[in-house]
Amino acid sequence: MYQAVFTKLFLTIQLEKSGRLPKQKASAIRGGMGQILLQQYCLKEKAVCSKCIMEGRCIVRNILYAKYKKKPEFVTDTESMGFTLACLNQKEDVQQGETITFTITLFGETIAFLSPIINAIHGLGQVGLGKEHISFHIIKIQNRNYEQILKETGLLKSRILIETLEDYIKQRMKEAMKGKLKLLSACSIKYMGSILDDFDQQAFAEAVARRVYMLNLFEGIEIEKPEIDMSPCMVTKQKTKVVFVPRYSTVKNEKMYLKGICGEVQLKGLTPEIQQLLIAGEITQVGKNSRFGFGVYEMV
Asked: Can you name the residues that pair with 106 across neighbouring β-strands?
């Protein structure tokens, strides 16, 4: 169940001028990165990917919309498990010289596109981020153990960690945890047809299990769909709130608001199996819109 592979990177950028940045920076980085990738690799003046004869070999499509090796029946054509982005820095008024750190986690064969992704982020730094086009440059790229992998001539490949979810779980299970979930960014959990306004332990665990299941199929690993029973577990304390995150869709050419919950939840009665599942979700993130920074949490 936890054989899927990933690499997680921490990127630190330094701003080259003062101004205002979007509060939700992961969405801005994801959108900007996509535009740069199209500029760098698309051979058409106007990209119409669904009608392009080169779609199957296109670097842009294979990064942004990487296809499942075994596609679940409930997944749409544009839904992908290729990568997630997260940035917890929500500061809007920024100064020249400030630094911002965000994470990008690549899964399966998308790891092969690490260099084009880094090049696209470098290109985005020259164009600038947000409406004021705040330029930046990358000053640090670290692996999950915070070892520097960026050098003047490129990436230090020996420090790029490609590991399985099982590796991560084994490491984390050695740490003392009290069963508290910190929902660090909006977690958009769809349960029984609606996006939840309150934390529900069964819905949350099922959403994590769904991500793990999808990731396995994305990498071509056939597993049984996990059945989760959270009845031994109970919420003893929670402090959560609903948040609405604005995002502009270039595909639909409109502004939309995405909903999720964030805050803290204290759980009691976690079995080792559920602990392992929730630890895996720290890597996969949980719920919808993970490529735009949603679903980031940690268990402590």
From this structure: 7, 83
For residue 281, what are its two tokens?
């979700």
Which of 52, 80, 51 lies closest to 66, judged by CA? Answer: 80
- Contact indicator for 39, 123 with CB cutoff of 8 Å: yes
Q: Are 9 and 143 in contact (CB under 8 A)?
A: yes
CATH 3.30.70.1890 is the classification of domain 5-163: yes
31-51 average pLDDT score: 86
Q: For the residues of 238-280, what is the DSSP string, one character each?
A: EEEEEEEEEEEETTTTEEEEEEEEEEEEEEE---HHHHHHHHH
Identical fold for domains 5-163 and 166-299, yes or no, is yes
For domain 166-299, the CATH architecture is 2-Layer Sandwich (3.30)
Determine the pLDDT at residue 270.
95
pLDDT single digits (tens) 114-147: 999 999 999 999 999 999 999 999 999 999 999 9
Q: Domain boundaries in the chain?
A: 5-163, 166-299
The phi and psi torsions of 69 (rounded to 5 degrees) equal -70, -35
Q: Do 64 and 292 form a contact (C-beta atoms < 8 A)?
A: no
Which tokens in the block code for residue 158? 């020996």
Give the whole-angstrom CA distance, residue 186 versus residue 188.
Answer: 6
Q: What's the pLDDT band for 184 if we cut at 50, 70, 90? A: very high
